[in-house]
Write a structure and sequence with these properties.
Layout: H1 3-13, H2 17-34, H3 41-60, H4 68-76, H5 83-101, E1 104-108, E2 111-114, H6 117-125
Antiparallel strand pairs: 1-2
Helix pairs in contact: 1-3, 2-3, 4-5, 4-6
Length: 127
């Protein structure tokens, strides 16, 4: 794997250990399938849509019937908007469940955000 591929993995995953491992696993699998000896950044970029779909199916596909509206509102809102303004009173009631599932994290006193930019992209893509 050349330096541009390593940089692409870091940029796409934000350095999150789970996502780095997931992406590398898919890249190694595809490299073996294609018979490649080396992976470059351009190869990784070309594989990204396939990897992102696999990631969505394995990690992000959650039962989010009632949670969908809250997650979408959090993903779409400006970061500086107050939480209550972003998700409303009913959304605030769902926060303990979203925290237990690991879908949101505390970012400050009374403030929460989606746990990772890749999950935010997934939510926005399903909005």
């Amino acid at each position: 794997m050349d330096e541009s591929a390593v940089e692409a993995v870091w940029r796409l995953t934000g350095g999150h250990p789970f996502f780095v491992t997931f992406v590398i696993r898919d890249v190694v699998h595809e490299t073996m399938q294609q018979g490649w000896n080396h992976i470059q950044g351009k190869n990784l970029e070309a594989l990204w849509p396939q990897i992102a779909e696999h990631l969505a199916a394995e990690r992000f596909a959650v039962d989010w019937q009632s949670e969908r509206e809250v997650l979408v509102a959090m993903a779409q809102a400006a970061d500086d908007a107050p939480l209550a303004q972003r998700i409303g009173r009913s959304g605030t009631a769902l926060l303990p469940r979203l925290l237990r599932k690991g879908l949101v994290v505390r970012s400050g006193r009374g403030e929460y955000q989606l746990y990772h930019p890749l999950f935010r992209s997934y939510v926005l893509g399903r909005a």
